[in-house]
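User: Fold both of these, please.

Assistant: Here is the first one.
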Amino acid sequence: MKKFVLLTVGFTQPTPEIMESWNQWFKSIKETIVDQIGLSKGKKVTKKGITELPMDKDAITGYVVIKAENMNEAIKIAQMCPMITSIKVFEVRSHE
C-alpha cells in the first residue's frame, strides 16, 4: 500500500448538514486513514514579508493521509468527499 495526502481546499461556515456529511465521509474511509488534521488561521511567509491567509474558498483547510493501492484508488476516495472547493491528491514520496 502507498500513502497519499488529500489536501482539502475551501472554507465556508459549517452548518450541521455540512458537518454531518463530513463525519459520514470520515467514517466511510476510516480503514484507510493514517493521519488527519484540520487547519484554521494561517500566514504566508515569503522573502518579501508575511501575509495573513484568509479562510475562504481558496484556503487549505486540512489534510488526510490515507493508504491506497495507487493514485486511481486515492482519487476515488477523494471524489467521495463532501468537498467545499476541491481536494488535491499527492502521493507520499518514499525515503527508502
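And the second sequence with its predicted structure:
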Amino acid sequence: MFCSAVVGATIGFLWWKLLSRRRLHGDTGSLSRRAALGTVAVLIKREFLLAIVGAVFVAERSRSWRRCLVQLWHRRIFKMAPLHHHFELSGWKEPRVVVRFWIAAALAALLGLSTLKLQ
C-alpha cells in the first residue's frame, strides 16, 4: 500500500511537471522519496539492489569516490562535480547528457531486476 502511494504521487507529480515547467520538486519531495525507497529496501532486505538500480544517482552524488581516484592517480580525473557537469564541460550538450543518463539508468534498472532472483 505504501509503495503504491509513493508511485501514485510520483506519477501525479510527473504528469503535471511535464505539462508546465512551473512545478518544482524541491528538497522536501526528493529527500522524502529517497527516504521511502531506502526504507522499502531495508524492509525487504535488498539494500544492495537499491544501489544497483540507483547507480546513476549514486555516481551523480558520490564525491568521496572521486577524491579516492584523485589520490590514487595524483591528478584530476573529472573536470567538475557533480558528474553531469564534467560531461557538459567536455563539450556535450545538456540533452545529450540527459539522454545518456536515461540510458544508463534503464540499464541499471534492468541489471537490478535481473539480479532480483539471485539474492
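The first helix runs from residue 2 to 19.
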